């Protein structure tokens, strides 16, 4: 039982990372029907932005708490800038183009950003990341189940981020304008909503959440890697589809399910199909099953009605 | 439709530039200043992630050539180097290999760094009977050693291919002997990343550890690129092993050791030369202390035979370090130079010279920087030296150097 609970905690931590990044995919898709494959790189830039803030901008001896907040802000500035520039120069000109064009562009942007960071930090990857929160400090959750401090911070930050986002979307003016644009962009524009601004807002919010995830990745694992966005991007996209792409709660749910399935598969899958190597395969088995029975994902909306 | 002005200007400039660079690429062959010029080729990654290691190889060859020219080892011949960048990719390796083969002045080639690249370079060289000596390839199949593990007779696949380093298949058993016999470990967990290198290493380690009498837990696997190993570690912890062998490379290994020790599983992680990297300690931090890595060869600065080489290397002022393969590349280049000295003396040239050099390299027997340089009938070195390194106070320290029989 203790083993099971410990693995469940591991799965929730993993799922929180996926969920945070998945939110970016799902928001952008919900509004412009674009699968922004470069979103994984936005997450990576969040990690590198935080690293850059720490190594270049912060004076030595900055108190840990202050440093963490400033690193988060630095990471967000970098991710958000990249997302806004990307939206303005790569996607907006293709707004009316066939769907395949922005998709291919997204792949191009993804490769561009990866190589940009790799070359900026000259060759050798991954880069060591400062361990501001002691990863060996284990918080006891009772019954022998533990969670390391950076992981606890990650989960807390993820939950706070998700709650803030959902209340923003439901309650604020801009949030409701986002919902309107997602439902019908043309009518929304007729009602006086500046849809271009709403689309940028979706990119900005997604980037900010991805930056939280990028920073917490650095804190948990003590390194950031120009290629780290590729794998996490695919996982987060899977989580978004699993939960129903376009649906904000679905992205979070999908993230947790994917994380927990992967962890449980490592522990409990039968012998020839066990081990970490098969964990991803089990994740996709679950995805396929969900899509067979619920083609729009667990909490998916009927998006087919939209022309 | 009129051509935009920029195109009218740009097109001739680009064509002109291409034409000029094509001229620049042509190598000067034949005689210069009454002296015949012969070339030793280098195939190594000179750009990208592995460029520091690749340049170490290039510099080792450069140093050997400079010393041979200064000592006039081969009368009437000036040696030059033609270093080609394989970018650590097999397809690029095949292209630059073809380029070197086509150049008639090339008498031998040192490289490549990666076994995967060697698999596309060696056939091209073998076709032309041009000697190829690698300072670092550890892939077993390059000399047909994979047949041994399968219980078949070893057959040499590339007749002009040699290497001055030991191979992966003895790295695993060497590490297992050390863990079980020297450290007295009894319950060993095995993890690998499913890549040819990692899986081969882990399988060979597990087999030998079992033979030595240790209990080996069922093999676990991970995916290269994974960052969160908490599920794996929780599982391992429940099985309470006293040693973890990881077949793979440092990016994952450093995270595993760090997360493992943070989770309270305080056992050493051991790996092959893929783990023996400064970045392993940089990323893992203090968690790396007490971990082990095996590596091919002996530490260069611990060898008496290497003192002169390291001093010369330093004096030459190269910007990239000699380690890990500069000394081996120096030996490889010298094997070619010595073979050339013998065969050139017999008045041979052209293809006959290349044929003769391969024969002479096969018969090499001289004291090199990394040890006695001689080859068995398959092109493998007879000097199979390995070293176990232990991480102490944030640095890899040699724990045991031995030759494997």
Question: Can you tag this structure with a few keywords?
Answer:
heterodimer; A: 307 residues; mainly alpha; ABC transporter involved in vitamin B12 uptake, BtuC; two-stranded antiparallel sheet; 11 helices; globular; B: 405 residues; alpha/beta; Rossmann fold; 8-stranded mixed beta sheet; 13 helices
Describe the structure.
The complex is a heterodimer of chains A (307) and B (405). By secondary structure, chain A is mostly helical. Chain A has a single domain, classed as ABC transporter involved in vitamin B12 uptake, BtuC. Chain A is 72% helix and 3% strand. Chain A contains 11 helices and 4 strands; from the N terminus they run H-H-H-H-E-E-E-H-H-H-H-E-H-H-H. In chain A, strands 1-4 form a two-stranded antiparallel sheet. Chain A has a two-stranded antiparallel sheet with strand order 2-3. With 405 residues, chain B is α/β, with parallel strands linked by helices. Chain B folds into 2 domains: 31-166 and 302-374, Rossmann fold (3-Layer(aba) Sandwich), CATH 3.40.50.2300; 169-296 and 386-403, 3-Layer(aba) Sandwich (Rossmann fold). Chain B contains 13 helices and 16 strands. Chain B has helices at residues 5-25, 51-70, 90-102, 115-128, 146-149, 168-182, 196-211, 230-239, 250-262, 278-284, 307-316, 326-345, 350-362, and strands spanning 31-32, 35-44, 77-85, 106-110, 131-134, 161-163, 187-192, 215-216, 220-221, 243-247, 269-271, 292-296, 366-367, 372-373, 385-392, 395-403. In chain B, the strands form 3 sheets. In chain B, strands 7, 8, 9, 10, 11, 12, 15 and 16 form an 8-stranded mixed β-sheet that branches. In chain B, helix 3 (90-102) runs parallel beside helix 4 (115-128) and helix 6 (168-182) runs parallel beside helix 7. The relative contact order of chain B is 0.13. Classes of the chains: A mainly alpha (307), B alpha/beta (405). The interface between A and B is large, with 42 and 36 residues.
Mean pLDDT of chain A: 88
Query: What is the residue-mean pLDDT of chain B, rounded to a whole number?
Result: 87
Gap between N and C termini of chain B: 76 Å
CATH superfamily of the largest domain in chain B: Response regulator
Oligomer: heterodimer
